[in-house]
Design goal:
The strands form two sheets. Strands 5-2-1-6 form a four-stranded parallel beta sheet. It has a two-stranded antiparallel ribbon with strand order 3-4. Helix 3 packs antiparallel against helix 4 and helix 4 runs antiparallel to helix 5. The chain is built from eight helices and six strands, in the order H-E-H-E-E-E-H-H-H-E-E-H-H-H. The N terminus is likely disordered. It is α/β, with parallel strands linked by helices.
Length: about 230
Protein backbone atom coordinates (compact mmCIF):
# COMPACT_ATOMS: atom_id res chain seq x y z
CA UNK A 1 0.00 0.00 0.00
CA UNK A 2 1.52 3.36 -0.97
CA UNK A 3 1.65 6.51 1.16
CA UNK A 4 -1.16 8.32 -0.64
CA UNK A 5 -3.51 5.59 0.62
CA UNK A 6 -2.14 5.74 4.15
CA UNK A 7 -2.49 9.53 4.46
CA UNK A 8 -4.85 12.14 3.07
CA UNK A 9 -1.92 14.31 1.87
CA UNK A 10 1.54 13.08 1.05
CA UNK A 11 3.17 16.45 1.76
CA UNK A 12 1.86 19.42 3.76
CA UNK A 13 3.44 22.89 3.90
CA UNK A 14 2.73 25.19 6.87
CA UNK A 15 4.05 28.38 8.46
CA UNK A 16 5.41 28.40 11.96
CA UNK A 17 2.84 29.32 14.63
CA UNK A 18 2.55 30.03 18.35
CA UNK A 19 0.20 27.49 19.99
CA UNK A 20 -1.33 26.92 16.53
CA UNK A 21 -5.06 26.60 15.85
CA UNK A 22 -6.76 23.22 15.63
CA UNK A 23 -6.81 23.12 11.82
CA UNK A 24 -2.99 23.31 11.85
CA UNK A 25 -2.97 20.03 13.79
CA UNK A 26 -5.60 18.50 11.50
CA UNK A 27 -3.11 19.08 8.69
CA UNK A 28 -0.31 17.52 10.73
CA UNK A 29 -2.34 14.47 11.71
CA UNK A 30 -3.45 13.69 8.16
CA UNK A 31 -0.20 14.23 6.24
CA UNK A 32 2.68 11.90 5.58
CA UNK A 33 5.44 14.52 5.25
CA UNK A 34 5.13 17.80 7.14
CA UNK A 35 7.24 20.83 6.29
CA UNK A 36 7.25 24.13 8.17
CA UNK A 37 8.49 27.16 6.22
CA UNK A 38 11.66 28.54 7.84
CA UNK A 39 12.91 30.97 5.18
CA UNK A 40 9.94 33.26 4.63
CA UNK A 41 9.98 36.85 5.89
CA UNK A 42 8.13 37.60 9.11
CA UNK A 43 4.49 38.65 8.72
CA UNK A 44 2.71 40.55 11.47
CA UNK A 45 -0.86 39.92 12.64
CA UNK A 46 -0.61 36.21 11.91
CA UNK A 47 -0.42 33.01 13.93
CA UNK A 48 3.37 33.19 13.71
CA UNK A 49 3.47 35.07 17.00
CA UNK A 50 -0.11 34.99 18.27
CA UNK A 51 -2.76 32.55 19.43
CA UNK A 52 -6.44 32.58 20.45
CA UNK A 53 -7.70 30.96 23.64
CA UNK A 54 -11.16 30.97 25.23
CA UNK A 55 -11.43 33.02 28.42
CA UNK A 56 -14.36 33.88 30.68
CA UNK A 57 -14.85 37.03 28.58
CA UNK A 58 -14.71 35.29 25.22
CA UNK A 59 -11.89 34.76 22.73
CA UNK A 60 -8.60 36.20 24.00
CA UNK A 61 -5.64 36.83 21.70
CA UNK A 62 -2.14 36.42 23.12
CA UNK A 63 0.83 37.84 21.20
CA UNK A 64 4.58 37.39 21.56
CA UNK A 65 6.44 40.71 21.23
CA UNK A 66 9.38 40.65 18.85
CA UNK A 67 12.46 42.85 18.67
CA UNK A 68 12.24 45.70 16.19
CA UNK A 69 14.25 48.73 15.13
CA UNK A 70 17.91 49.23 14.38
CA UNK A 71 19.31 48.98 10.89
CA UNK A 72 17.37 45.84 10.02
CA UNK A 73 13.77 45.91 8.84
CA UNK A 74 11.94 43.18 10.79
CA UNK A 75 9.78 42.31 7.81
CA UNK A 76 12.82 41.60 5.64
CA UNK A 77 14.36 39.11 8.06
CA UNK A 78 13.86 35.37 7.64
CA UNK A 79 11.38 34.03 10.17
CA UNK A 80 13.98 31.74 11.73
CA UNK A 81 16.09 34.79 12.66
CA UNK A 82 13.36 36.83 14.37
CA UNK A 83 14.22 37.46 18.04
CA UNK A 84 11.71 37.61 20.89
CA UNK A 85 11.49 40.71 23.08
CA UNK A 86 11.64 39.72 26.75
CA UNK A 87 11.90 43.31 28.05
CA UNK A 88 8.23 42.95 29.01
CA UNK A 89 7.52 39.77 30.95
CA UNK A 90 4.92 38.44 28.54
CA UNK A 91 5.68 34.86 29.61
CA UNK A 92 4.09 35.42 33.02
CA UNK A 93 1.16 37.24 31.40
CA UNK A 94 0.53 34.39 28.96
CA UNK A 95 0.87 31.69 31.62
CA UNK A 96 -1.57 33.50 33.90
CA UNK A 97 -4.06 33.99 31.05
CA UNK A 98 -3.85 30.33 30.03
CA UNK A 99 -4.22 29.16 33.62
CA UNK A 100 -7.24 31.43 34.22
CA UNK A 101 -8.85 30.13 31.02
CA UNK A 102 -8.20 26.42 31.54
CA UNK A 103 -7.57 25.70 35.23
CA UNK A 104 -11.04 24.12 35.43
CA UNK A 105 -10.63 22.02 32.31
CA UNK A 106 -10.24 18.25 32.87
CA UNK A 107 -6.68 17.86 31.57
CA UNK A 108 -4.96 21.19 32.28
CA UNK A 109 -3.20 19.82 35.36
CA UNK A 110 -1.71 16.95 33.36
CA UNK A 111 -0.20 19.03 30.55
CA UNK A 112 0.58 22.47 31.98
CA UNK A 113 4.06 21.65 33.29
CA UNK A 114 5.23 20.21 29.96
CA UNK A 115 4.02 23.32 28.16
CA UNK A 116 4.96 26.01 30.68
CA UNK A 117 8.47 24.61 31.11
CA UNK A 118 9.19 25.45 27.46
CA UNK A 119 7.93 29.02 27.89
CA UNK A 120 10.08 29.36 31.02
CA UNK A 121 13.25 28.66 29.03
CA UNK A 122 12.90 32.08 27.35
CA UNK A 123 14.16 30.79 24.03
CA UNK A 124 15.73 33.66 22.10
CA UNK A 125 14.20 33.18 18.65
CA UNK A 126 10.52 32.98 17.77
CA UNK A 127 10.93 30.12 15.30
CA UNK A 128 12.83 28.01 17.84
CA UNK A 129 10.23 28.61 20.56
CA UNK A 130 7.36 27.77 18.22
CA UNK A 131 9.12 24.63 17.02
CA UNK A 132 9.74 23.40 20.57
CA UNK A 133 6.09 24.01 21.48
CA UNK A 134 4.70 22.41 18.32
CA UNK A 135 6.84 19.31 18.71
CA UNK A 136 5.72 18.92 22.33
CA UNK A 137 2.07 19.44 21.38
CA UNK A 138 2.33 16.91 18.55
CA UNK A 139 3.49 14.37 21.12
CA UNK A 140 0.82 15.30 23.69
CA UNK A 141 -1.93 15.03 21.07
CA UNK A 142 -0.80 11.53 20.14
CA UNK A 143 0.31 12.44 16.61
CA UNK A 144 3.16 10.15 15.63
CA UNK A 145 4.79 12.39 13.03
CA UNK A 146 8.18 13.98 12.46
CA UNK A 147 8.34 17.65 11.51
CA UNK A 148 10.72 18.89 8.82
CA UNK A 149 11.77 22.45 8.02
CA UNK A 150 12.31 24.00 4.61
CA UNK A 151 15.88 24.83 3.60
CA UNK A 152 14.80 27.39 1.01
CA UNK A 153 11.69 29.53 0.59
CA UNK A 154 9.06 27.70 -1.43
CA UNK A 155 6.73 29.57 -3.77
CA UNK A 156 3.05 29.43 -2.92
CA UNK A 157 1.09 26.71 -4.67
CA UNK A 158 -2.41 28.02 -4.02
CA UNK A 159 -4.30 30.22 -1.59
CA UNK A 160 -7.70 29.24 -2.97
CA UNK A 161 -8.54 25.75 -1.75
CA UNK A 162 -11.71 23.94 -2.72
CA UNK A 163 -13.59 21.14 -1.05
CA UNK A 164 -11.62 18.70 -3.23
CA UNK A 165 -8.76 18.60 -0.74
CA UNK A 166 -8.52 14.96 0.25
CA UNK A 167 -6.16 12.90 -1.87
CA UNK A 168 -4.00 15.76 -3.14
CA UNK A 169 -0.32 14.89 -3.37
CA UNK A 170 0.64 18.19 -1.72
CA UNK A 171 -1.32 20.84 0.15
CA UNK A 172 -0.01 24.36 0.83
CA UNK A 173 -1.73 25.90 3.84
CA UNK A 174 0.59 28.84 4.52
CA UNK A 175 -1.87 31.43 3.29
CA UNK A 176 -4.98 29.62 4.49
CA UNK A 177 -4.31 29.00 8.18
CA UNK A 178 -4.23 32.71 8.97
CA UNK A 179 -6.44 34.81 11.30
CA UNK A 180 -7.29 37.20 8.44
CA UNK A 181 -7.99 34.59 5.78
CA UNK A 182 -11.44 35.39 4.34
CA UNK A 183 -12.24 32.01 2.80
CA UNK A 184 -13.60 28.89 4.43
CA UNK A 185 -11.36 27.45 7.10
CA UNK A 186 -9.74 24.06 6.62
CA UNK A 187 -12.06 22.64 9.30
CA UNK A 188 -15.13 23.81 7.41
CA UNK A 189 -13.80 22.66 4.06
CA UNK A 190 -13.29 19.21 5.54
CA UNK A 191 -16.60 19.24 7.48
CA UNK A 192 -14.64 18.86 10.73
CA UNK A 193 -16.09 21.63 12.90
CA UNK A 194 -16.99 19.06 15.54
CA UNK A 195 -18.01 20.51 18.93
CA UNK A 196 -16.40 19.33 22.16
CA UNK A 197 -16.81 20.38 25.79
CA UNK A 198 -15.43 23.84 26.59
CA UNK A 199 -15.07 25.51 30.01
CA UNK A 200 -16.85 28.71 28.98
CA UNK A 201 -19.94 27.97 26.93
CA UNK A 202 -22.20 31.01 27.43
CA UNK A 203 -21.44 32.16 23.88
CA UNK A 204 -21.90 28.70 22.43
CA UNK A 205 -19.17 26.51 21.01
CA UNK A 206 -16.20 28.40 19.54
CA UNK A 207 -14.41 26.56 16.76
CA UNK A 208 -10.75 26.50 15.70
CA UNK A 209 -9.14 28.02 18.76
CA UNK A 210 -5.59 27.20 19.83
CA UNK A 211 -4.82 23.51 20.08
CA UNK A 212 -4.53 24.19 23.83
CA UNK A 213 -8.31 24.50 23.99
CA UNK A 214 -8.84 21.03 22.53
CA UNK A 215 -5.98 19.41 24.46
CA UNK A 216 -6.94 20.77 27.88
CA UNK A 217 -10.59 19.87 27.39
CA UNK A 218 -10.29 16.51 25.63
CA UNK A 219 -6.85 15.19 26.63
CA UNK A 220 -5.99 11.82 25.03
CA UNK A 221 -9.24 11.96 23.07
CA UNK A 222 -7.95 15.01 21.13
CA UNK A 223 -6.63 12.80 18.35
CA UNK A 224 -10.17 11.67 17.48
CA UNK A 225 -11.08 15.28 16.68
CA UNK A 226 -8.03 15.71 14.46
CA UNK A 227 -8.25 12.64 12.22
CA UNK A 228 -10.31 12.62 9.05
CA UNK A 229 -12.84 9.82 8.95
CA UNK A 230 -11.93 6.86 6.76
Amino acid sequence: MNKINLYRWNRCLLTTAYFPPIDFFVALANSNEIFIESKENFQKQSYRNRTNILSANGVLSLSIPIKRGGELNTHKIAINQIEIDYSVDWVIQHKRAIEAAYMNSPFFIYYKDDIFSILDKKIAKLFDLNSALIEKLVFLCGINKKLSYTENFENYISNNPTRELVGREQIDLRGIIHPKYNGESLLRLLNMEKPYWQVFTKQGFITNLSILDLLFNEGPNSISFLMLES
